[in-house]
Amino acid sequence: MAETAKYAAINGGNLFTDMKTQLSLPKTKRTVACAYGFVFIFIVVTTFLAFSPSPNSSSPWFTNIFSLSKEDVGTSYRSQFSSVFSNLFPRSSKNNFEQPHLDKKGLIVEKSENYTQNDDKGGVLENPFNSSSSVLSDKESSVVKNETFSEVFDDKVGILMGNQSVNQTFDDRDGIFKANQSSIEGSKSAAAVNQNKSRDFDDKVGIFKANQSTIEEKSAPKFSSKGKSANVEKKRDVDLVKSLLNCDFFDGNWVKDESYPLYKPGSCSLIDEQFNCFINDRPDSGYLKMKWKPNACSLPRLNATHMLELLRGKRLVFVGDSLNRNMWESLICILKNSVKNQKKVYEESGRHHFRTEAFYSFIFEDYKCRVEFFVSPFLVQQWEVADKKGGKKETLRLDLIGESADKYKDADILVFNTGHWWTHEKTSLGKDYYQEGNHVHNELNVLEAFRRALTTWGRWIDAHINPKKTFVLFRGYSASHFSGGQWNSGGACDSETEPIKNDTYLTPYPSKMKVLEDVFKGMKTQVSYLNITRMTDYRKDGHPSIYRKPNLTLKERRSQWRYQDCSHWCLPGVPDAWNELLYAELLVRLHQKHKRKSHR
């Protein structure tokens, strides 16, 4: 009984209270053990996450903490916890990747293989070159190739972008190159991106650029400065093309420029001897150092390599009289001078002189393009009919296009001209010379004959030229400068060494060119008019005059030629500027073409 009383409850108990008393001590020990166990597991897991290596970077916790800059401290804690959270629960972040440093102006949609972005405000060359890029791992030095790394410059912010696995963004504000899906760190890590030349023709700029950059993380500040420089250059190019789009190329003046001419005098053996004033011992050189400067813009200097790229796989054809031959020879010399292997530039039939045949074609083999010249001084056919004495007399068929028309109708670029032969005696008098059908006019005013001939030309263009394929230009009348008489009556220009500087001495706009403009208005096909009449009128100093043959004394020169040449132009010289105008027209044309495509 005493033993029973020993374990009895003081206040009277029952079975429940007895069991509670017996279990209280073990329960306290289990709670303490669980608490210690949880703390131990938490420390182990945290330590594992902190020091375990990641395939793309160092520890997302400690590395990022110690690499924080002062500027990042206030904004980085969320990203640190996010990194740990993503390691604990990797599936939870799928498809939620952000691009925090993409400029709001230039938000870009990623595309897969071989995509090129043809934006209206920043169009690119029709066939830009894509190249693979590689990323070198800092720890394993392994190469990971992209499926296709296509580089496109956003017109507003100049962001460099890549496709698919390495989607890299250039921050417009601070020029820092960032990788979106993986951060590449370490002093020795580098990304070698696009070491091949990629050709990029900006829709608004129309300027050929070669991008040959090696991007290294350790030299990021250096890349940043280059990026800013490229952006400045791009903005300058954009402004240049904007000025071209709203500029009258033909309202301006000649200015001295010591960087001219476009090719070294005496370096081009293809120039007709009678145009090669430098080789023919012309004593002054000021005529070589002149550049045409429109009042409302600055023309881009003719980049021969870029122009050949524009002409790649195409035919550029000049059709007209010897003034167009002047322009054709100028362009051949400019383009040929830029080609490294001169043997790959040649006249199709092996000719080296260009005065006797009706057709010449220069081939630029590396570019698979042709630059050709067809002789057609009136653009309509020269003809013959029987006269009353049983012989034949020459006539001009105002109703028939020139004989060679079928040979050049499929060209990609056509540059026409006519004018000077309409000042000769037969054409200016117009007696028994102009023919339509079987009828030879007894007399017809030269201006009316010119109108009918150009109308025939215009109708042929509308009927046979596809404006979607062929760009048609017409170069206007080139001014002559015969002083003291006409070309056949003692007119001279050999004493001229300076351009006209006072506009009051310029001649009125030719009535034939007014007729030409009226013909343009009646055509369905749009024709680009190279109105060079005024710009050539200033250049009384630019003609060969008596310098048409080498190794002659002044007395021999004056007696050698019955007439001075004050119509054609020395080369290098004025026709080089015509080709710079042609180059600018091609840039504008390409811009308009890309703009139409982007609006479809």
Counted beta strands: 20
Question: What is the average per-residue confidence, as pLDDT, rounded to a whole number?
Answer: 74
State the low-pLDDT regions, or none. Answer: 1-26, 53-225
Within the largest sheet, what's the order of strands?
11-12-13-10-16-19-20
Could you describe the largest sheet, including whether it forms a barrel? 7 strands, mixed
**Residues in β-strands, percent:** 5-15%
Q: Kindly provide the radius of gyration, computed on alpha-carbon positions and rounded to a whole number of angstroms.
A: 39 Å
Instruction: Compute the number of helices.
Output: 14
Structural class: alpha/beta
Shape: elongated
Membrane topology: Single-pass membrane protein
Family: Belongs to the PC-esterase family. TBL subfamily.
Main location: membrane
GO cellular component, one term: Golgi apparatus
Keywords:
elongated, 32% helix, TBL_N, 7-stranded mixed beta sheet, 4-stranded mixed beta sheet, 600 residues, disordered N terminus, alpha/beta, 20 strands
Describe this structure as you would to a colleague.
By secondary structure, this protein is α/β, with parallel strands linked by helices. It has helices at residues 2-6, 15-51, 62-66, 70-88, 220-245, 304-310, 322-336, 405-408, 425-429, 446-464, 511-521, 533-537, 554-560, 574-598, and strands at residues 134-136, 143-145, 168-170, 177-179, 190-192, 198-201, 208-211, 252-256, 290-294, 315-320, 345-347, 359-364, 369-375, 380-386, 392-401, 413-416, 434-436, 439-440, 471-475, 528-530. 32% of the residues lie in helices and 15% in strands. It has a seven-stranded mixed β-sheet with strand order 11-12-13-10-16-19-20, with helices on one face. Helix 7 crosses helix 14. The relative contact order is 0.09.
